């Protein structure tokens, strides 16, 4: 069995100035009227984030929320921190520049399934692979809400929407699988209505060094209501939700009667009814495993149509070099070796040429 005992690593949050006094949720509420559709899941996420922020103990002037375009991207207006409502899909790129140039800031990205995975897909995967010190909240409602109900990159196959009246032909992205494939160092999934779970995942992401991606299943009650009902209804959720906890056997259902094992023939993961004969085979979750292979396999358990057997929690949380730190080290080395640089030498060096007209 894998040894899942790990010593804690000091957080990069130590670089961010602390708050001068104890803060409360009220300190992180802006004076802007919150304007989402009544009943939108974004309200629950906003409340959870505002309630969690005081735990960081950071000066709110050193916290920044950067968003792209979409319903979720109103988020910076409602946080009493610095923020930027940026351009479609480019929030990770803008946040990368900010995080690498200002290591005294705690930088958070708020995006949606359309913003992050369609026009912004390229920016997202490169932020993940670089391991920039960002916390990315990806709101996934499996629909385009702001533009009034078109199918999105996470909509299920056959989804009937205004833009796919005969059903979507596109196979949907699984954001957790995508992030793991990009070698993200922290990947998690949670649900908007489960505030306790959402807050705990935020807590672990904030402590992580590098890029942390949290997919948040978020209900759009106007254009895709009930998309995650199986994971929210108390009776159904007991049999549908697999709660991942580092160092614990992966069991779920009433009294843990279901469990996840590795198929001995194919190596794939499968859900089985737990018996005395197979109980020893139940997988123990190791979020700190160096290889993303098992975490990826866990991300594939959920049926994209019914969402039965959907894992939530932290899939992966590993230490690897942080881009911001590596870049700072290179800049320090360059200054030490060459002083502050010589622009004239650069412009008149061998890599120039004369254009003769």
Automatic annotation (TrEMBL):
- Listed SUPFAM superfamilies: Thiamin diphosphate-binding fold (THDP-binding)
- Per UniProt, residues of the Thiamine pyrophosphate enzyme TPP-binding domain are 69-216
**Positions in coiled-coil regions:** none
Output the superkingdom of the source species: Bacteria
* Entry keyword set: Oxidoreductase
In Swiss-Prot or TrEMBL terms, this protein is called 2-oxoglutarate ferredoxin oxidoreductase subunit beta
Taxonomic path: Bacteria, Bacillati, Actinomycetota, Actinomycetes, Kitasatosporales
């Amino acid at each position: 069995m894998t040894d899942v005992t790990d010593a804690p690593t000091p957080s990069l949050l130590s670089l961010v100035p602390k708050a001068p006094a104890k803060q409360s949720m009220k300190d992180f509420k802006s004076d802007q009227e919150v304007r989402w559709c009544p009943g939108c899941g974004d309200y629950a996420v906003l409340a959870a984030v505002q309630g969690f922020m005081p735990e960081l103990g950071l000066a709110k002037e050193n916290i920044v929320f950067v968003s792209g375009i979409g319903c979720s991207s109103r988020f910076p207006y409602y946080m009493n921190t610095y923020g930027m409502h940026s351009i479609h899909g480019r929030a990770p790129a803008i946040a990368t520049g900010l995080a690498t140039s200002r290591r005294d800031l705690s930088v958070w990205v708020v995006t949606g399934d359309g913003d992050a995975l369609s026009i912004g897909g390229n920016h997202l995967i490169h932020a993940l692979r670089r391991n920039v010190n960002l916390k990315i909240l990806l709101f996934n409602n499996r629909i385009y809400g702001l533009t009034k109900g078109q199918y999105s990159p996470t909509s299920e196959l056959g989804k009937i929407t205004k833009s796919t009246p005969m059903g979507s032909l596109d196979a949907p992205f699984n954001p957790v699988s995508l992030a793991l494939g990009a070698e993200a160092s922290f990947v998690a999934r949670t649900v908007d209505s489960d505030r306790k779970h959402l807050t705990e995942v935020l807590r672990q992401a904030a402590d992580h060094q590098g890029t942390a991606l949290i997919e948040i299943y978020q209900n759009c009650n106007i254009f895709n209501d009930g998309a995650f009902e199986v994971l929210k209804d108390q009776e159904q959720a007991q049999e549908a939700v697999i709660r991942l906890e580092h160092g614990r056997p992966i069991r779920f259902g009433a009294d843990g009667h279901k469990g996840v094992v590795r198929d001995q023939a194919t190596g794939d993961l499968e859900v089985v009814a737990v018996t005395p004969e197979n109980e020893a085979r139940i997988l123990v979750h190791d979020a700190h495993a160096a290889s993303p292979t098992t975490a990826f396999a866990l991300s594939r358990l959920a049926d994209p149509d019914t969402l039965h057997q959907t894992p939530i929690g932290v899939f992966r949380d590993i230490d690897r070099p942080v881009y911001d730190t590596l870049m700072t080290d290179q800049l320090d080395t360059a200054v030490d070796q060459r002083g502050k640089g010589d622009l004239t030498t650069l412009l008149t060096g061998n890599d120039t040429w004369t254009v003769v007209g």
